């Protein structure tokens, strides 16, 4: 829930206290789901189950955040002396679930297919670590990576990106003063960028006849786990819909999924960012570029379609479409950021 509070200048939207029953229910539900997900990762990580071709080159813990294990992917084609582009990846999971392992398929493919160093970053999870804990930790880690002399990357060719909550965090930390200027672009895959508008209103923005959206029954739980009572929901580090263009990197690639309840807010965010400048918009309604901003809508897909477990023909379709999405991001990076 949110209410408007006068601060003497403008109306601020803040989160409000839920009922005791809601707090108990959401806490139990979130921690139960976390336990299930953790157990699943342990099982899928067992020898003989994991796809070893997707494993990182090595893992690394930076002293500034000693509880967080980061996964580093060096292209197999790397040769001593190469200075490669760097891509920093942040996984999704509603700010509360998953680990960097979930992005291994993307990170390994991205690194080897396009000869990019990929560093998959971890962060402290909700509800034990609420906003802005993850942003603070990731800011420390990003600076540590960018100062890491062991990584053979070109400091003029650095981008960051993420999926869902990870996309939100990418857009948040790049607004930090000590990060600005060090990262050339953000690839934000289906990001939540508006904590003010609530789930029922977001569901109304989906096309008529859309299939069920798993986020519908989870988004309020994730919001509860990530934010505290009294939190300003218009804080641009939380809701990028309220961010100023000059506080973000010069290049932005925003991806939305047509049937995702978050698609419209991501599209509005991209449109707002693209308004700054004098450039002409090129492309179509579903794929356009303007003033350093690229928007792409993946038609016929739900939130996180690329990471859903699928079988048979569905798996073949998902594999094809996610590779197309990843290729699109890589093409944009090499054209706009890694130049």
From TrEMBL:
InterPro entries named in the record: AB_hydrolase_3, AB_hydrolase_fold, GDXG_lipolytic_enzyme
Signal peptide: none
Pfam family, one: Abhydrolase_3
Hydrolase listed as a keyword: yes
Keywords: Hydrolase
Protein name, per record: Esterase
Alpha/beta hydrolase fold-3 domain boundaries: 88-278
Keyword S-adenosyl-L-methionine included in the entry's annotation: no
GO molecular function, one term: hydrolase activity
């Amino acid at each position: 829930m949110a209410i408007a509070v006068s601060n003497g200048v403008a109306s601020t939207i803040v989160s409000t206290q839920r009922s005791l029953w809601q707090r108990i229910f959401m806490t139990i539900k979130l921690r139960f789901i976390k336990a299930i997900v953790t157990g699943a990762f342990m099982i899928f990580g067992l020898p003989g189950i994991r796809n070893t071709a997707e494993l990182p080159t090595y893992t690394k813990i930076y002293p500034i955040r000693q509880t967080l294990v980061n996964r580093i992917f060096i292209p197999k084609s790397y040769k001593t002396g190469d200075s490669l582009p760097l891509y920093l990846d942040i996984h999704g999971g509603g700010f509360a679930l998953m680990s960097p392992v979930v992005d291994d398929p993307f990170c390994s493919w991205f690194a080897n297919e396009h000869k990019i160093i990929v560093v998959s970053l971890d962060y402290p999870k909700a509800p034990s670590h609420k906003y802005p804990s993850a942003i603070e930790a990731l800011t420390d880690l990003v600076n540590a990576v960018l100062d890491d002399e062991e990584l053979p990357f070109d400091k003029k060719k650095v981008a960051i990106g993420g999926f869902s909550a990870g996309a939100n965090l990418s857009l948040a930390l790049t607004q930090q003063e000590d990060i600005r200027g060090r990262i050339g672009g953000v690839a934000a895959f289906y990001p939540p960028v508006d904590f003010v508008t609530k789930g029922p209103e977001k569901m109304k923005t989906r096309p008529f006849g859309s299939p069920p959206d798993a986020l519908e029954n989870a988004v309020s739980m994730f919001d509860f786990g990530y934010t505290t009572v009294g939190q300003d929901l218009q804080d641009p580090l939380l809701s990028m819909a309220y961010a100023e263009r000059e506080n973000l990197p010069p290049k932005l690639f925003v991806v939305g999924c047509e049937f995702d309840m978050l698609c419209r807010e991501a599209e509005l965010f991209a449109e707002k960012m693209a308004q700054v400048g004098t450039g002409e918009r090129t492309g179509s309604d579903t794929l356009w570029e303007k003033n350093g901003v690229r928007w792409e809508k993946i038609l016929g897909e739900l939130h996180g379609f690329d990471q859903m477990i699928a079988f048979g023909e569905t798996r073949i379709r998902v594999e094809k479409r996610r590779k197309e999405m990843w290729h699109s991001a890589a093409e944009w990076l090499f054209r706009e950021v890694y130049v």
